[in-house]
Design a protein that fits this description.
Layout (H helix, E strand, L loop, with lengths): L2 E2 L45 H10 L33 H5 L3 E2 L5 E7 L4 E6 L4 E5 L6 E6 L6 E7 L4 E6 L4 E5 L5 E5 L6 E6 L5 E6 L4 E5 L4 E6 L6 E6 L5 E6 L3 E6 L5 E7 L4 E6 L5 E6 L4 E5 L5 E5 L6 E7 L4 E6 L3 E6 L5 E6 L7 E4 L5 E5 L4 E6 L26 H12 L36 H4 L7 H10 L1 H4 L13 H14 L23
Antiparallel strand pairs: 1-22, 2-29, 3-4, 4-5, 5-6, 7-8, 8-9, 9-10, 11-12, 12-13, 13-14, 15-16, 16-17, 17-18, 19-20, 20-21, 21-22, 23-24, 24-25, 25-26, 27-28, 28-29
Helix pairs in contact: 3-7, 5-7
Length: about 525
């Protein structure tokens, strides 16, 4: 249950920082009772292996069993697709009917709403950010920003103008003009993925959090880089500005929240040490109270001035992956790797509504006006609208389950094995039809015999365009044997390697049959010369 905590350390939370000025966010803050340990070393000492380990822990229950185990059971009334490819046409109308934000080609990783302007931003695994008009009865896509070299993990509106920010796996922070759809500027400097963005209330400054263990400040007026905030002992997941913009707060996998001077990036003091890695951080509007969520499922509100936990929110059973805050009324929403969304009063942490998404983790949350509804993002290719108040009866989600990239099974049939390998390795980024469906990679339709980087309509990297490769059974097999970092260096394709030759052969055979253009009257082939959205081949 949520509890209000006043004036003292409580449980695993800690009180005021040490008196002398420490050298890092984790120095000088007394820890509470030690949590149960996963290993003999503190988790931030796992080094480069940490991000993958934590991601696996967060999503293990959401992504289904491994190969060779029993197939996933489906919720009542939900039909699994016959293959790992797209949902059947009968499902296509369902997302749009409920006011959902439909148009991405991959899971939704970020959602932000500008309530005053009636607009929303979504970021996706499909390497794109989309701006939406949500002021009317049905959402309307305004512009799609596709020029990214990785999944978009964070998005933000810039107050007082028509600009928006995006950041993601490519380590860049991009500034966009919503009205014209053009790229205004791109900030470079991070050496790893960016997972969090914040903008000061006056719209002058932006801050980014990265797995390179730093946060960075960017001058949005001058379009110039600012100070680098360093000192964390693990990846930095989230950032937030103070109410006046003079300070930046950072949250890290090392279990701490730190405070930095915005003007020069100097570390000022540790704010709070939680003991478990902190995934998400937001500042309550109009205050300098910080809301956090962690990998052990706990969440709370911290007074940034003294580090006191003033409210403990009801804990989740799985890691907290998403947060949303609202000023009027003062509400907090938390979303977990288990698919649970809770809405609580900020004053006392009391839960007023709860929603269970049965199809996987919740990676993004955003309130609409007056907290009447919430947009949330997860494994679906669209952001879902949940009506919080008045509460509507639960309607089963008419989605195929498991998703196209969650297929499992064990079969001696090479065709079935090839289909399963495609579902796991390829389907999250590629389609087999002439339409690329806004996925991160280009359609594979007509792949064999095509020169690399030549499908019309897809924004290939310059490095890929210069390669002299024609896709054949041999070159496709070589791609998965060596990996894209070896065969196609500089491409956007995530690292995918298959050491098992039988699995590679099954995948290639399946692709050869599934991507062959269908002949039509006159001997022409469907899709030849057509525009196709979506990757790297």
């Amino acid at each position: 249950m949520a509890r209000v905590v006043g004036g003292r350390r409580h449980g695993a939370f800690v009180g005021p920082p040490a008196r002398r000025l420490p050298a890092s966010p984790t120095e000088g803050v007394p820890a509470g009772p030690a949590p149960a340990r996963l290993c003999a070393r503190p988790f931030w000492a796992l080094g480069k292996a940490l991000p993958g380990i934590l991601l696996a822990l967060a999503l293990a229950a959401a992504t289904g069993p491994a190969a060779g185990q029993a197939p996933q059971q489906q919720p009542p009334g939900v039909q699994a697709p016959a293959s790992g490819e797209d949902r059947p046409p009968a499902h296509a109308a369902r997302p749009a009917a409920a006011g959902n934000l439909v148009g991405h080609g991959g899971p939704i990783k970020a959602v932000r709403i500008d309530i005053a302007a009636g607009r929303a931003l979504t970021g996706s695994f499909d390497y794109a950010m989309t701006a939406w008009d949500i002021s009317g009865p049905q959402p309307r896509e305004l512009v799609r920003f596709e020029d990214h070299d990785g999944a978009v993990n964070a998005v933000a509106f810039v107050p007082g103008g028509d600009r928006a920010l995006s950041a993601g796996d490519d380590g860049m922070v991009s500034v966009w003009d919503i009205g014209s759809g053009r790229l205004v500027h791109r900030f470079a400097g991070h050496s790893a993925k960016v997972t969090g963005l914040a903008v000061s209330d006056d719209g002058r400054w932006a801050a980014s959090a990265s797995w390179d263990r730093t946060a960075r400040i960017w001058d949005l007026a001058q379009l110039a880089p600012g100070p680098v905030l360093s000192g964390h002992q693990g990846p930095v997941n989230a950032v937030a500005f103070s109410a006046g913009g003079a300070h930046v707060f950072t949250a890290s996998y090392d279990g701490s929240i730190g405070a930095y001077q915005r003007v020069d990036g100097s570390f000022e003091r540790p704010v709070h040490k939680h003991g478990w890695g902190i995934n998400v951080l937001e500042r309550l509007p109009g205050t300098d109270q910080l809301v956090f969520g962690s990998i052990n499922g706990s969440a709370g509100i911290v007074d940034a001035s003294n580090g006191e936990v003033v409210v403990e929110l009801e804990a989740h059973e799985r890691p907290v992956l998403a947060l949303a805050v609202l000023e009027k009324p003062s509400l907090i929403a938390t979303g977990s790797a288990g698919g649970v969304i809770r809405v609580a009063r900020a004053a006392d942490g009391a839960v007023i509504e709860e929603h269970q998404n049965p199809y996987g983790p919740v990676w993004a949350l955003a309130f609409t006006s007056q907290g009447r509804s919430i947009y949330y993002g997860g494994l679906d290719d669209f952001a879902t609208l949940w009506h919080v108040r008045p509460r509507q009866p639960f309607e089963p989600l008419d989605n195929p389950f498991p998703r196209r990239f969650q297929q499992s099974g064990d079969s001696d049939d090479p065709a079935a094995q090839g289909r399963i390998q495609f579902a796991r390795k390829c389907s999250i980024c590629h389609t087999l039809t002439p339409d690329g469906a806004n996925r991160a990679g280009p359609t594979l339709y007509g792949l064999f015999g095509r020169r690399i980087g030549t499908l019309p309509g897809y924004p290939y990297s310059d490095a890929l365009k210069k390669l002299d490769i024609v896709w054949t059974e041999e070159t496709v097999s070589l791609l998965f044997e060596l990996g894209p970092d070896e065969l196609t260096p500089g491409s956007k394709m995530p690292l995918q390697k298959m050491t098992d030759k039988a699995q590679r052969d099954a995948l290639v055979a399946y692709l050869k049959a599934a991507t062959a253009p269908a002949p039509v009257d006159g001997g022409n082939e469907v899709g030849q010369g057509s525009e196709a959205k979506g990757g790297t081949r």
